[in-house]
């Protein structure tokens, strides 16, 4: 999961080559990698790629602060809601 998300963020949102390769712990909001528009694009990507619905109330900076934080959030969501998704993955 980390590789998929890191690759997407690196490809779509990192405009400063000095940040590459992007570490999973890199603060995405503080470094300007993510802003409000790119955050929405990222949410759409993870919803389509992983089949996890991200509710508006879940759009808190802490959950999208880094690749590690995003993956922890998604794993928490998947663990709580994936029972009907057709398998364990």
Topology, please?
Blueprint: H1 2-12, H2 36-50, H3 67-81
General form? globular
CATH architecture group name: Orthogonal Bundle
Main β-sheet, in a few words? none
**CATH topology descriptor:** Non-ribosomal Peptide Synthetase Peptidyl Carrier Protein, Chain A
Query: What fraction of residues sit in β-strands?
Result: under 5%
Q: Helicity level, as a percent range?
A: 40-55%
The succession of helices and strands, N to C, reads HHH
| Mean pLDDT over all positions | 88
Assigned CATH class: Mainly Alpha
How many distinct beta strands?
Answer: 0
Structurally, the number of domains stands at: 1
Q: Radius of gyration from the CA trace? A: 13 Å
Look at the helices and sheets and give the structural class: mainly alpha
Number of helical segments with 4 or more residues: 3
Provide a descriptive summary of the structure in words:
With 89 residues, the chain is mainly α. 19% of the residues are buried. The protein has helices at 2-12, 36-50, 67-81. It is built from 3 helices and no strands.
């Amino acid at each position: 999961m980390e590789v998929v998300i890191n690759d997407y963020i690196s490809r779509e949102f990192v405009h400063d080559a000095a940040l590459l390769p992007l570490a999973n712990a890199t603060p995405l909001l503080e470094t300007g990698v993510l802003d409000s528009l790119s955050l929405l694009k990222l949410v759409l990507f993870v919803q389509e790629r992983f089949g996890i619905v991200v509710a508006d109330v879940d759009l808190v900076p802490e959950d999208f602060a880094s690749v590690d934080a995003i993956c922890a959030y998604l794993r928490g969501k998947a663990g709580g809601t994936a029972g009907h998704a057709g398998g364990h993955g």
